[in-house]
Amino acid sequence: MKNSTCTILLAFLLYSLVFVSCSKDTSKLSPTNTALNAANSLKVAPIFLKRADTLFSSITELYLNGMPRDIWSTNYPRTDGYWDGAAVIWGHGAAFSGYTAIKEAAEGFPDYKSKYESNYDNRLLTAIDQFRNTRNGGAEAYAVYPGEGDERYFDDNIWVGIDMVDLYMLTNDSKYLDRAKLVWNFILTGTDDIMGGGVYWKEGLKSKHTCSTAPAAVLAAKLYEATQETPYLQSAKDLYAWCKETLQDPNDYLYWDNARLADENDPNSEILIAKEKYSYNSGQPMQAASLLYKITHEAQYLTDAQNIAGAAYNKWFIPFNSAVLGESFQILEPGHVWFQAIMFRGFIELYKLNNDRTYVTAYEKTLTHAWLSDCRNPGINLLNGDFRGGTTQTSWEILHEGACLEMLARLAALERDGL
């Protein structure tokens, strides 16, 4: 083997490909440091992209194909009900977020990219646009169900808006930016100076929530990145500041649920705080702070994001020994899977700033164990809500399966990029 090089392909649980170059000529030794270079050189998909694609194929077959109006169903097995069992915009949006994430993860892999573009780009945009209305002559927005008179929630719309601006930055196609701005214009109708700021949860209600205000800050920051229009940045700062001042628990850095006036008719009455804590309500301020640090380089934002991350990790991960992986690690505790997917966005945004992989690795091991264990039903490739496995489940919700797709796809993008 004089001056010859051999390539050894090793397959692992967590990484798609690792290439080691072997040569007697040490000057030619160039071990590949990332899965990205190896995978892209042969156009072989990372293992998490393969898993995400498998799940995407399953949910389109089980929840979408054959549905009236070609919109996602709520459950598998499908059930009859309002709008023929169609998912509300929250569940529909979760599936759309999964599609958005896997479309981004497919960059660099032409077969996957082409499949998603040709089969799903127009189809899924047409489907979600059926939810748009101008109820009572108001600003156009995405309603709970298709129909001109159906009600609209501000938080439901923000999740769609975030996906749209992400798709715009991925494709540079203005139709996505137009929809993101449509959502933003609707969000502005849900803001005022009562209680000092914030975003209402729903048209007509008087409570202002972390789940509407923090992601609104994320959307504003992303719109600033997409357009460089400074009003978006100022809005992101203002919304983040209000949420932190009003709804963050100063004792542990986690976020409470919502604020409302003791007397809805008296704007000067006491502000009452609902102190429930949900994982996504800390994940979104974490992402907003990370984005604001990336844009402004103001150190306090990074400190804020790191404080939230440590507290969220301590609260929503538990020790676990995986027989499948042969190791112990911190796994996501049983809980609301969609909340956990939204929290993951914050951890990823922070990881790209500080290179501390602790939290991303915990998600990676959680989803790897889930996929390889009896958490996944091998007949239909859907994941149960308890990622530890060992539970029996007979019905699966698109809200949760869309969230699983999103998490797998985000791990695929990290794997592709060698992160």
Task: Give the overall shape.
Answer: globular
CATH architecture assignment name of the largest domain: Alpha/alpha barrel
Indicate the radius of gyration in whole angstroms.
Answer: 22 Å
Largest sheet: 3 strands, antiparallel
* SS element count, helices: 13
Pairing-aware structural class of the strands and helices? Answer: mainly alpha
**Quantity of strands, as a count:** 13
Q: Strands across the major sheet, in which order?
A: 6-7-8
Mean pLDDT: 92
Per CATH, the class of the largest domain reads Mainly Alpha
Question: Can you tell me the residue ranges where pLDDT is under 50 for at least 5 consecutive residues?
Answer: 1-42
Looking at the structure, the CATH topology of the largest domain is Glycosyltransferase
Number of domains: 2
Name the helicity range.
40-55%
Order of helices and strands: EEHHEHHEEHHEHHEEHHEEHHEEEH
Which range does the strand content fall in?
Answer: 5-15%
User: What is the straight-line distance between the termini?
Assistant: 34 Å
Concise synopsis of the structure shown:
With 419 residues, the protein is mainly alpha-helical. Helix content is 53%, strand content 11%.
Note the topology.
Elements: E1 5-10, E2 18-23, H1 35-42, H2 47-64, E3 75-76, H3 89-105, H4 110-129, E4 132-133, E5 141-142, H5 154-171, H6 174-188, E6 208-209, H7 210-227, H8 230-247, E7 258-261, E8 271-274, H9 279-296, H10 299-316, E9 317-322, E10 327-332, H11 337-354, H12 358-372, E11 376-377, E12 382-383, E13 396-397, H13 398-416
Antiparallel strand pairs: 1-2, 3-13, 4-5, 6-7, 7-8, 9-10, 11-12
Helix pairs in contact: 2-3, 2-13, 3-4, 3-5, 3-13, 5-6, 5-7, 6-7, 7-8, 7-9, 8-9, 9-10, 9-11, 10-11, 11-13, 12-13
